[in-house]
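Narrative of activities, Objective 1.

The group set out to show that a structural description can be obtained from nothing but a protein's sequence at a throughput compatible with the screening campaign. Below is one input-output pair from the validation batch, recorded exactly as produced.
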Amino acid sequence: MAAEVMLDPTRLVIAAIIGLVILLVLIIKFKVQAMVSILVGAICIGLIAGMPATTIITAVNDGIGNTLKGIALLVGLGSMFGAILEISGGAQTLAVTMVKKFGDEKAAWALGITGMVIAMPVFFDAGLIILIPLAFSLAKRTKRSTLFYAIPLLAGLAVGHAFIPPTPGPVLVATMLGVDLGWVILLGIFCGAAAMIVAGPIFGKYCGNKYMVPVPDRIGAQEDIDESKLPKFGTIVAIIFIPLILIIIKSIAGVVPALSGIQPVFNFLGEPFVALLIATIVAMFLLGVKHGYSMEELEKIMTKSLEPTGLILLVTACGGVLRYMLQYSGLGDVIGNAVASMNMPIVLLAFIVAVLVRISVGSATVAMTMAAGIVAALPGISELSPMYLACTVCAVAGGATVCSHFNDSGFWLVKSLVGLDEKTTLKTWTIMETLVGLTGFLVALVISFFV
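Output recorded for this entry:
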């Protein structure tokens, strides 16, 4: 690790501003790929600040290596786990069973909870494509606006995707801040549940009553889901919760004296990559082999699921470069002193940075990456309590979720799948995303005052 260099604070701030402007202009104006833009912006910060070339190179290497070693396995295993859940019909099982238990009148709550659970192992877009037919089916049966069911589903998916590991976003932020995933899962579920309720069933009811959006024509003749071919509900729930429970037990065992005897066992089993590996292997056999897939077919499915992870990992790694560039230049100390003088909570700072990047760039991943990089470079971060750091992770997640608009691919995906025009999408989806992010952040902020 390189020692931090002593540079002029004014020059450091100017360098940071210019570097971040270059980064944003490359992405927004010239449509340069996010990974390249972040890397160029980070290097520009180092050069303009006057960092020695060797320190810049060290920051790049340390940023990529130290970041990837914490998340590469988790992103890969999570993608394979999610792919098996997807092809087995596990997502449909959860949704159909929950809707039956809640009934048509409270189906919006069932869809919100289902979306929240499914988005943890399955990417947002895949979860939406899998589950949106059920929302359409309910709307067709009850003759209500599709938004009555689609908004709660979208809210649940957004919450699971942003707040709760093992989805890549919070894993990335937790890794960069050095906080145990167990605490992030516990707090993420708490913040996420509040966000899902406000932005899902409550806001969904308002949207459903205000905007009558019919079921798309292409769905009218769609056949109902064949439930006889779906895996059992209990099996799906058990498999999804394997990694969550193991990781949480590991965190709790570390602070509860009565559990000290089993701590070594759960230190191993609750290590995130071990927990996810166990869940993936169980899913391979219970959801794959037992449902007629050969090992050769599973191998192809799992390999294909890794294709989108390359981009996620590289963008994330470049976010690590930004973090180490800020730290090694000494800019982290400058920002930290400024925050201290303003008496601004780190949780609030993290949220604001993520919001600004999210609105400018549109990408939640880039917003999380940049916010985590800046916060992780602040002095004294490692000395904060695990719960406060978990609150910071949720604040970043909240900021990276708000205000999805024209520069976010999710905006256009929802518009096309649900059959909305741009104006209605802004009034429903964009507000829903903002409610998710703002509610999750406010819950985290309140909790941070007590930890």
